Amino acid sequence: MKEHRFGCAEPAGRPSEDKRTVIEDQRIAPEREPPQTRSAPASAAPEKCEFMGVRVDALTRSGLFEASAAAVADGQRIVIANHNMHSLYLQRRSAALRQFFDQADYVHADGMWVVHLARLFKQPLKREHRITSLDWLGPFLEMAEHAGWRVSFLGGTVSVAERFELYIRANYPTLSSQHQHGYFDMRADSAENQQILDDIQAFAPHVLIVCMGMPRQEQWIHANRSELAANVTFPLGGIMDYLVGETKTPPRWTGPWGVEWAYRLMHDPRRLAGRYMWEPICLAPWIALEAYRGSRLRYRARRGALGGAAGHTR
């Protein structure tokens, strides 16, 4: 499928060309009508954890794969979102973002600090519930390739999108894929936005992966959800930049230990200092207040239970 390039200047400093092996384009035309919209079945839902007014599903990597496969098999249209500390900060300041997360079919933990917060509030999130796209996207695309799914990628600069397409074609040669950069006019009534939606509709992907950074990608998915012809839609941030080498990838051991942020900050302090230094400071009073309220509620509940037990023994 032809990649559309709209009138958007690419940022200066074009990255060097990807040196991976390029193979013949294997993409195929769609063979089915877009699926009908309906909610994911309740039986497929993992345990929901709620704290600080936030919902996070206790979703493992295998659970994410199973939910995606079920959506494709059943002709559903679902959104699988993710929370990290950055999204918690942004959600506090954006009603539209809160609505996006409220309406997402699944919201998994993208960072260990979300897991730590959930455990602070006595919620059953564990280390295995921290799943980030750098760890699961490769096996997921292998599954999609073997299953014959069509996957649409939206995001990145013009250069990154081109290099990412070469990466996909080299590493998943039989995957049917569609590629479009993320520099376009997102306004609902813009010709560029409508063209993007028309292209996705025509391709009829099983999976749509939107990589335009938070909160832009969530805002776009939320505004256009009713028109997205995909069984599963993921917002995946800067995954394209990592996979083509535009951004340094943290060692994978840093994620489960909750120090991936430190590696990223060290390699890109100018861009990430506010996110990793200032945002946690802003969140701290909210976390402390919610923790205090939670402890008071638990204390009152225990006192009530003890009082009730004492009454029965008289």
Descriptive account of the structure:
Helix content is 47%, strand content 12%. With 314 residues, it is an alpha/beta fold. It has a domain of 217 residues. A hairpin with a 2-residue loop joins β1 and β2. The longest helix is centred in the C-terminal third of the chain and has 45 residues. 34% of the residues are buried.
What's the short version?
This protein has 314 residues and is of the alpha/beta class. The protein has helices at residues 61-74, 85-91, 95-103, 112-120, 133-147, 158-171, 191-203, 216-224, 239-243, 260-267, 269-313, and strands spanning 48-51, 54-57, 78-83, 106-109, 150-155, 176-180, 207-211, 232-235. It has a domain at 42-258.
Please tally the helical runs, counting DSSP H or I stretches of 4 or more residues.
11
C-alpha Rg (nearest Å): 21 Å
Strand fraction: 5-15%
Straight-line N-to-C gap = 78 Å
By secondary-structure content and strand pairing, the structural class works out as alpha/beta
Strand order of the largest sheet: 4-3-8-7-5-6
Which runs of at least 5 residues are low in confidence (pLDDT < 50)? 1-43
Q: Kindly state the percentage of residues in helix.
A: 40-55%
The strand count comes to 8
Sheet having the most strands: 6 strands, parallel
The 3D shape can be described as globular
The H/E string reads EEHEHHEHHEHEHEHEHHH
Give the overall average pLDDT: 85
